[in-house]
Amino acid sequence: MKDVYSPDHKHIMTLEQFIIDQQEREPGATGAFSRLLRDISIAAKIVNRDIRRAGLVDIFGTTGEVNVQGETQQKLDALAHSEFVRALKRGGECCLIGSEEHAEAIPLATQSGNEGKYIVLMDPLDGSSNIDVNVSVGTIFSIYYLPDDYGEPDLDAALQAGSEQIGAGYVVYGSSTMLVYTTGHGVNGFTLDPSVGEFLLSHPSITTPKRGKVYSINEGNTESFDEGLQEYIRWVQHHDKETSRPYKTRYIGSFVSDFHRNLLKGGIYIYPATKKNKEGKLRLMYESNPMAFIVEQAGGRATNGHERILDIQPSKLHQRTPLFIGSEEMVKRAESFMQRKQVKA
Ligand code: P6P
Q: How far apart (Å, rounded) are the C-alpha atoms in residues 310 and 194?
């Protein structure tokens, strides 16, 4: 990949230029979706600034509150949530927000008066318990249309299957800060250049390898895994030169970071049902669905072990789902172990 600043690099393309480019290819596009993506990217830059200085100002640690998930809310969770709400409210294109940090859906009466027509569901800061120990974290977002002639936007308007998403993306606040998103026409990655404050196109047309050698799962929960999954874990750990096994285990404890590495290099991330999380831990609407949209657009696969994530009809904003996501052949192999055991049972 040529350095985006090298003289012979023809296209230093910013995220804004890319978005406008894409808009010009959409007949009848009004620019509203482009402005929505701009609003999200502005909040991402502000959250990035807050994270990069977390060790210097008093934003480490917890708010003392417990969020709707029953998890201790980190100060930065609350900060990230309020930055995205503020940016979306100010931008005027979003009419309803669903956030991991807020029990109910948040209708946005737009200041400009004209009703926004987009719904944004998000995890403002995933993996935030890692902040205090300087491990990378991320933001995940999912975008739907408010159905035509819907009237007052409410939670039901947001409870659409993942296949109805019109956009999805994540920001990974890692060694560099990247924004990766799809609108159904492939996946593109942008790296923040803090010296100019712009996200620059650094990973055009991302595709994920059909197979890889990395598996990401919390093996501390092995005893409570489905028998088929236990057998799959034994399979990946078995020495077999021909199939490059044993695979490497890489589990950061930050879904966005594990997902991003596996997307680029190949691999599988699994958060199954466990004794403690009987429905799995990852939320369907603002973690699994957006990442499933992205991984499918990149040629990968995402299921709950049996069913395509994007086909699941949601019933609650914060519902959880088991998640098998990543390289297509690896996800299919893991499913085959799950189904084999199911057939025997
Ligand atoms: P465990 C972070 O809380 C998160 O939602 C994901 O980012 C991460 O992959 C997972 O939970 C870690 O959960 O139970 O393995 O600590």
A: 35
**148 alpha carbon to ligand 1 midpoint, in Å?**
36
Task: Summarize pLDDT for 272-300 with one digit per residue, the tens.
Answer: 999 999 999 999 999 999 999 999 999 99
Q: Looking at ligand 1, which atom is closest to the CA of residue 71?
A: 3
Segment (H or E) for 65: strand 62-66
CA 1 to centroid of ligand 1, rounded, Å: 32
The residue count of the chain comes to: 345
CATH topology of domain 214-338: D-Maltodextrin-Binding Protein; domain 2 (3.40.190)
pLDDT band at 59 (very low <50, low <70, confident <90, very high): low
Alpha-carbon span 304 to 259, nearest angstrom: 16
Mean pLDDT of 256-270: 98
CATH 3.40.190.80 domain position(s) in the chain = 214-338
Pocket test for ligand 1, best of 255, 259, 318 (most atoms within 8 A of CB): 255
Neighbours of 46 (CB within 10 A): 15
User: Ligand 1 atom 12: the closest Cα is on which residue?
Assistant: 253
Ligand 1 neighbours by CB, cut-off 6 Å = 126-127, 218, 253-255, 281
Distance from chain centroid for Cα 284: 11
pLDDT at 100 over 70: yes
Q: Ligand 1 centroid to 65 CA: how many Å?
A: 19
What are the residues whose beta carbons fall under 8 Å from the beta carbon of 213, sequence distance 6 or more?
244, 247, 248, 266, 267
| CATH class of the structural domain 11-203 | alpha beta
**Which pLDDT does position 54 carry in this prediction?**
73
From the alpha carbon of 287, which atom of ligand 1 is closest?
A: 5
Q: Using CA positions, which residue lies closest to atom 14 of ligand 1?
A: 218
| Predicted confidence (pLDDT) per residue in 305-330, tens digit | 999 999 999 999 999 999 999 999 99
